[in-house]
Amino acid sequence: METWTPNPRAKPFIPRQQRSLYLTWKYKLTNKRTIRRFCQAGAVLFLLITVIVNIKLILDTRRVADEDAAAQAYEDTIPNMETPRRPAKGRKILDIEVYSSRSKVYVAVDGTTVLEDDMPEQGRGIHVIVLNQATGHVMAKRIFDTYSPHEDDAMILLLNMVTRGRVLIFTIKDEGTFHLKEAAKNLLKSLGSQVSLNLSWRDMWTLVVKKGGQVYGERHSKSPALSTWGDPVLLKTEVQLTASEEAECHWAATELNKRRKLFCSKVEGYGSICSCKDPAPIEFNPDPLPNNNILNVPVAVIAGNRPNYLYRMLRSLLSAHGVNPQMITVFIDGYYEEPMDVVELFGLKGVQHTPISIKNARVSQHYKASLTATFNLHPEANYAIVLEEDLDISIDFFSFLSQTLHLLDEDDSLYCISAWNDQGYEHTAEDPALLYRVESMPGLGWVLKKSLYKDELEPKWPTPEKLWDWDMWMRMPEQRKGRECIIPDVSRSYHFGIIGLNMNGYFHEVYFKKHRFNTVPNVQLRNVDSLKQDAYEVEIQNLLKEAEVLDHTKNPCEDSFLPDSEGKTYIMYIQMETETDTSTWTELAKCLHVWDLDVRGYHRGLWRLFRKRNHVLVVAVPISPYSVTKPASVTPIHLEPPPKEEGAPVEQM
Amino acid sequence: MPRVNRTAVLTLLIVSSSVFLLFQLYYYRKYVSQSGPFILSRTGHLTANDLQWQAVKKFLGLARRFGLPLFLADTAALRLLSHDALRERDRLVREPHCSFLCTGRPITSFALHANLWKYEPGFLLAAEQKGFELLELRGEDPRLASLDNLSGEEIPLHFLFRLYGHVIQVVFLYERSGNYLWHGELRFKSNADRSFAPFKLLDYGRHAGSYDRPELVLTVLDGLDVRIPRNVTRFLAEQRRARFLECRYRDARNFLQLYPEDSSPEAVDFRRKVKSLLHSAARILAGINVPFWLSSGTCLGWFRQCSVISYSRDVDIGIFVQDFRSDIIAAFRDAGLSLKHKFGKVEDSLELSFVSDDVKLDVFFFYEDGDVVWNGGTQARSGRKFKYVFPRFSLCWAELLELKVRVPCETLDYVTANYGAAWNVPVRSWDWKSSPSNVQENGVWPPAEWEELIQVH
After folding, report:
1. Does the pLDDT value for residue B430 go beyond 90?
2. Which residue does chain B place closest to A60, by CA atoms?
3. What is the pLDDT of residue A241?
């Protein structure tokens, strides 16, 4: 080819081309190389077009961007909202007055009384106030009755929790040293107290100090004799406020930390929530439930002014699997700030309720308002979950309810589903997958059906002038109408409240402390549908058939009453002539260390509980229809109450 | 070039061009189709419509990012979408690339189901960063106001976002007991910026409003994904008559302090029956599209005590006679309410009574006559006619016994006309022929027509 030179005289090539157009194509198409060439050309062409279109697009977009910029030039630019740092203005000074005496204490900050206690027979011990060093706000106000044991430990706990730099104010009313032990005195000394080691019986004492900083003032007056009190002391001092930056931690600027910051600038005494280095979480992100029937059921948390309880309760609630924080509303009885702060810390909704009436009726009215409001706020809901602020919530609380909720719809003989087994103590409850039907209304974490509330309970709820307990009222036959509640063997809530309207430390120790509480996640409940009215009777009959009769000649209170077996079912018969003949059950409950204040947790005269890992059926003869299973040879157990003495009047829960 | 490599080159070319093509498709979807008017307005001049489109686009982008299920509630835009307008459009092509959302009005309204809104400061922050100015209007939660002494946080009622001088209104719709949605009035706090938006032009917020839950569809309007009510025409009709009156809970509480509610079992039972009767009446009449309102004692009960007067013995409703349909009686009968009596005729003093579960439902038909409205009464024994005259009124929505019902908007005038200035004092002995302050004698039915005009079953 290279050597080829065109011949100018050669004939044009046309005829051949014309002659063989068809053949050429045929030839070309059958030739693989040509096909390849053809495709190549096509591809290149395709590529070119693509490139051109794309370039055009890019140009177009460029123009749009330009126009965008032009558009932005039209409107008023948003001024940069960065606020300039305020110049460090003249730091303020707080005047503080602290008074300590036998019958009265008060603390005034800048002329405002933040603490005044002159009630007789009340407020004995060391009063502690925590002030924010930047704003002067009261962040915590506590009394530690250090005349009594263990209170000094609680004080140490608080003082250790308080952030460094806060202003602490101490003052003693009446007596505050009898059980103030060395550890506490040393801690006070390390805070800067000069006299703490010498504090003794009926001394009066005041102290204003910055944690980890200077002492603003301390006064002390010794008691001259055992029978007399020290002279009242009044301490007047000044505290220099610091710049707010110094009082704050530098957490990452997230939404959560914004809430945390607000909370921590207001209150003290919530442990590591406000720790600068490694703060406790306020969002928990527990696992969702696979089949959550309870996701859109509203949760009403009934609260009073026990913010530390509320904090503990909400933490456990928000950690439970399947929780939906959107559906939670906390109803606070009264206009208290601190519970509201706790609610806002967790980003939940809070509603405050102006108190109506007094004592039990006040609680009852608060319940009514809260329940009505819950169904108002969630008109589409058919149920509501009712919780109280002094409950721990089990990790599978929502899973438990999600598995049982449908029973309320399918079985008209049900009154509620409750997370609480009145008789479920550590030694009497075993099986987290087991459910019971009971004729009492346990409360303490329960589900209420809307139709029950709207059609039956709300219209005749006790009015404010009736000083009734709402739960006692709900348990009355006029309301319950023979309906039953579903409960688990192992409770899904735990009652930790010690202070309360119907509560005190002793009562809690005896009846609530040893209550069994489920900690196993995702428990699959057994035979949920067998809890329906008819199915449950079949279940009971099977149990009765299978049960071995215990030796009724032995003392039922003795451990040896039960054989040393495991996993078996036993039956025992106790005497109960009428509904009101409760003495045998009460005595039995006493020696079993279960709930004995009234008769609870039975189903048609039958109690079910565990002893020594065996399931025990207790049948009341003759009022229970299951009495017919009693062999003729067995005499029902009869226990007499011990001779009456002046028993401690225990209030009902 | 060695022959072996040609195949490789070819493959490479095909792959790369396909990638280009895909990119191009993606690019087209993402940018070109969504930039709508911009790419096509070659004048380089931005019209108000372009700004509106741009503001809405940015806003919807934000809403999508934060998963806010907004729907378009703008009456002007929805009107363009309703069927009549769509037919007209074929002839009259407006701006070709922004034909629905560019209404030419300075406001576009969206609505949001409030229970799908978790307070999301991130959203507001992002909106601010995008250049939106924000006006939040909050107010009391009416669902708590009905209860003694409960106070929650204020709930968001309306959010106004402003960008390029265009305002986007977000109306929060709250679920209320009675199975309807509610939005609040737009009212300023004393420190609010009153010049933020042309408030007179807002579609929502002059009054509180109530709506049935609209079914929504997702559609593409002018290149933007927007949710709209499926039945636009019905939504628009509802919007025009959506005004909602909250019961005056505070006054009702004061009234009930003076005259405590009867909580005897009979009274409780009566209230339950009234509730069920009212619910079925509302269902029946809605089924045949007849609007009605609470009248007489039932209206007084709502207005005075937000409840039912327990000694009133019956339920009274009113219907404009032009809404009368001959199948009303059949509709009630089919639902199990038997006709107790029928007085008068469609032309004059028509009145129907039904009974269900021992409670009587009186249906009064109202006649418009100049600047008054009246309804009639008939004494069965004597054939005497009576006339009850009211000033003209319009209808509003209200809630009673967990039901969304209409009441006269001018309720005070209506109640005062019927019960006099002392309507606030309970009267237990009531004679319908003489006690009302607006009753007038209206002659006697001619005895020949009694059989037809006075039917007692």
Report:
1. no
2. B39
3. 87
Q: Do A43 and B122 touch (CB under 8 A)?
A: no
Report in angstroms the alpha-carbon separations of B385 from A468, B370, B443, B446, B453: 53, 20, 5, 10, 11
The pLDDT of residue A145: 86
What residues of chain B lie within 8 A of the CB of A295, using their CB? none
Residue B384 has pLDDT above 80, yes or no: yes
Lowest mean pLDDT among A299-303, A480-484, B262-266, B306-310: B262-266
Looking at residues B13-17, what average pLDDT do you find?
83
Mean pLDDT of B310-338: 89
Within chain A, which residue ranges are assigned CATH 3.90.550.10?
299-528
CB contact under 8 A, A356 and B148: yes
The Cα A625–Cα A627 span in angstroms is 5
pLDDT at A204 over 90: yes
Residue A59 with chain B: CB contacts under 8 Å: none
Residue A360, pLDDT > 80, answer: no
Report pLDDT for A135: 84
Q: Residue B181, Cα to own-chain centre: how many angstroms?
A: 7
For A299-528, CATH gives 3.90.550.10
Asked whether residue B91 carries a pLDDT value surpassing 50, the answer given is no
**Residue among A36, A50, A75 whose CB faces B24 most closely:** A50
The answer to whether residue A484 scores a pLDDT higher than 70 is yes
Dump strand ranges (E) for A85-137: 93-100, 105-109, 112-117, 125-131
**Between A and B, how many CB-CB pairs are < 8 A?**
125
| Count of CB atoms situated within 10 Å of the CB of B197 | 22
Say whether B6 and A36 touch across the interface (CB within 8 A). yes
Q: How does the average pLDDT of chain B come out, rounded?
A: 83
**d(CA B376, nearest CA chain A) in Å:** 35
Q: Do B46 and A71 touch (CB under 8 A)?
A: yes
Q: A433, A455 in Cβ contact below 8 A?
A: no
CB contact under 8 Å between A75 and B16, yes or no, is: no
Under an 8 A CB cutoff, do B20 and A67 touch? no
Closest chain B residue to the Cα of A66, Cα to Cα: B44
- CATH architecture group of domain B48-241: 2-Layer Sandwich (3.30)
Q: Judge whether A572 and A617 are in contact, CB under 8 Å.
A: yes
- Under the banding of pLDDT at 50, 70 and 90, the label for residue A4 is low
Amino acid B262: pLDDT: 82
Mean pLDDT taken over chain A: 84
pLDDT above 80 (res A225): yes
B163 CB neighbours in chain A (<8 A) are: 75
Residues of B in contact with A42 (CB under 8 A): none
Q: Judge whether B318 and B364 are in contact, CB under 8 Å.
A: yes
**Which contiguous run of DSSP H or E holds residue A400?**
helix A397-410
Name chain A contacts of B265, Cβ cutoff 8 Å. 460
**Lowest mean pLDDT, pick from A329-338, A351-360, B170-179:** A351-360
The answer to pTM > 0.80 is no
Q: How far apart are the first and last CA of chain B?
A: 107
What pairing do the DSSP bridges indicate for beta strands B314-320 and B359-369?
A: parallel
Q: Which part of chain B is CATH 3.30.460?
A: 48-241, 249-456
pLDDT surpasses 90 at A298: yes
Interface test with A, best of B118, B149, B262, B402 (most A CBs within 10 A): B149
| A436, β-bridge pairs | A487
* Residue A188 · residue A196 · CB < 8 Å: yes
Domain over B249-456 is classified CATH 3.30.460: yes
Which of A376, A378, A382, A457 is the mutation pick for testing B, counting most B CBs within 10 A?
A376
Residues in B touching A376 (Cβ below 8 Å): 143-144, 146-147, 176-177
